[in-house]
């Protein structure tokens, strides 16, 4: 290398490599070290504290540890104080840093708010959109594989168009016309119960089948069997999502190096796509071979009309069609499954309320199948469902993002931050609900939700609030009331001694080990609906129920009423 020109070229090349490395390192440190520290400092100056940011991992490791510890053992007794077990990391931070605090999901700042005024403002505002599927890919990659870019995650015009379509499919007259399909699905479940009499029944699984059947029949015009593979694959994806929830992911690395979970999740996504398209093809073929003259008016029919729309502006792509279907398969099933299971669990452990609900059902429907008009008259059942949704909300949190610097209450929030609302925390806050916050007391809702919450809408958020509130609320409540009515008309439900009280979230709130009812605790009414009240029909009085370690105390049993019949 005697040539001075060559020497200079090598030097220049070496300098540019060094410079590029320095720039890359500076950018990296700016993003993963300087920016988080700056945000932390900025929020602290406004009184918002939290655990210190840890390089790249944020507070993920601590959150993961807290969660693992919380899930190690079942809860003592049948306590409804589930917040510390289900969201231990949120509970711990509220305790240490106050109702509003800052935490770090990897390098992403997460502002946790539990002050009702802030929560209401956030959820009602259009200035705090949801995180899009593209953004979620960075830190929520697995969850987004379940929902794709469907209604739950889409934004802007696409969201508005899809929301209108879903509103049409799940409200008013459409809802009424779904009743026969819901009843038929409950009847299928009750038939199954007859076959398994004498054996322990796991309610969460029973309601998984029921709610899968209901959403398949009502939204997709098919039976559970057609959607079975889709449900199974969605469940597998939620298990993978749950396993990775606090794992720090490096976007660049995960593009080149796939973990076993990445590979499995990609396979499931492809499998779901294929199965959804098979259901779509079946519906299309019915039209093309003349069996039907339109795609139909159910949710799938409306989606297919949009899929075949010749106007490019309204046309749905194949990917959008699949994403929308899997969103509704998932959102329409997992949520109602959870709330039905927890409602029956609470009825099983509060026989006085079970009996009150049964009496009401018998007064309204007698031995007839429920109908939409009668469903509107079930006041006690509505109180019970509301109290269940308060103590055990299937969706336990909502997240919104701060796109550009924004004001929330008196706080200035920097861009690129997420805001996390734990409705579970609000539902279990003694400041909002009183010292008996963890007691099952449906009578709180006797005068409606507004009175129960003292006109504080953010105190009770099972279906969220504002423009992104649940589109399936009326559908879910109708389905639940129909199913509960038909169960109560036929069975007295009690808990099996093998039940272990372990609520946890796998995207939705679930019983970690199921909800077991012992078949010997479940009685079909003796003489089929001949009398006017269940006690005339030979329901076994509660005092004869075998007792077990988690059973309520004597005071909880309505001995006099039932045993006296
Ligand atoms: C007890 C049952 C249910 C509960 C507790 C529930 C809860 C919720 C909550 C809390 C949200 C808002 C999430 C957020 O703000 O980020 C939501 C949204 C949504 N729910 Fe439900 N849900 C239930 C049943 C259903 C059913 C049966 C369907 C479908 C038929 C459904 C479809 C949806 C969809 C598509 C959204 C997104 C709406 C949007 O962003 O515009 N849900 N649900």
From TrEMBL:
Location of the region described as Disordered in the Swiss-Prot/TrEMBL record: 544-565
Membrane association type: Single-pass membrane protein
Compartmental location: Membrane
InterPro entries, per database record: Cyt_P450, Cyt_P450_CS, Cyt_P450_E_grp-I, Cyt_P450_sf, Cytochrome_P450_Monooxygen
Alphabetic keyword roster: Heme, Iron, Membrane, Metal-binding, Monooxygenase, Oxidoreductase, Transmembrane, Transmembrane helix
Major localization class: membrane
The keyword Secreted is annotated on this UniProt entry: no
Entry cofactors: heme
Keyword Metal-binding: yes
Leader peptide range in chain numbering: none
Domain of life from the UniProt record: Eukaryota
Pfam families found in the cross-reference section: p450
Entry's family note: Belongs to the cytochrome P450 family.
The protein's name: Cytochrome P450
Organism listed in the record: Hibiscus sabdariffa (roselle)
